Each structure stands twice: as structure tokens, then as C-alpha cells.
Amino acid sequence: MNASLIFQIANPAATIAWLVLVLFPGWKYVRVFTVTIMSSLVFAGVYAFALGTSMAAGGSGNFSSLEGVSMLFQNPYALLAGWVHYLAFDLFVGSWISFHAQKLGISRWIILPSQFLTFMFGPIGLFTFLLIRALMRRESLATDPFA
Q1: Using an 8 Å Cβ cutoff, are 129 and 114 in contact?
Q2: Which residues are CB-contacts of 61 (< 8 A; sequence separation ≥ 6)?
Q3: Alpha carbons 88 and 43: distance in angstroms, whole number
């Protein structure tokens, strides 16, 4: 399957998963859908396929310099693997934010900006949630994020 076609399928799939997460946070299967099915099965499967296809094609590059990483991503399947990696982890983090906020009694309306920022800018969204959580619970940002 062509890397561009997979990319064109993966992006709307991620958007649908995010919409389910944001619009139906109380649905009893939302965690199964976003974490188990989409992040762990679908995106991990696409990632493994793209990474394997990229590695089979050979090529040059490494992780020891920015130029080396740039060379790795000249292969469209390596680039796809990198993108799907972002999709999977951002969805996982967005799901964690949602479930953690529910556990702590933080309104879904308050965390919506954090989820949007996670969808668009990954770590910035996570930071905003941790900041919201710290302010609402009057605790340090250095508090264990899994507590």
C-alpha cells in the first residue's frame, strides 16, 4: 500500500478518534476505542508496517544528528512511521488527560483547550493540563503526573 494513501487514511482516522474522545467522554467504550483499538492496534500496526517497509528499503541516516534524522525521513515510509508515531502518542496522551480529569473531577469543559492543544501540538497540551490540574488542586507542577 502506498505511503501517501495510508497517510490520507490515518489523518481522518485520528480526527474521528479525537472527536469520539471529546464528544463522548462518558461513553463506557471510549477508552477501549481510543487507547486499545486506535492507538495500540491501528496506529501501532500502521507504524510497524511503515517502519518495516522503510527498513527493508534500506537507506541512510541515523539518530545522532539533525542531518542524520533528516536523511532517515527522506524515505516516505519512514516519514509516515514518524507521523503515525505522533498520531498514536498524542491520542494516548489526550485519552490520559480525559480519564485523569474525570478521576479528579475536573470538568471536561475546562480540559478542552488542553485536549485541542495536545491534538495540534502534543507536549504543549500535556503541559497545559498539568498546569490546570496543579492550579485546581493547589499543588506543584512537579507533582507525580500519575497521582
Answers
A1: yes
A2: 68, 69, 70, 71, 72, 73, 74, 78
A3: 6
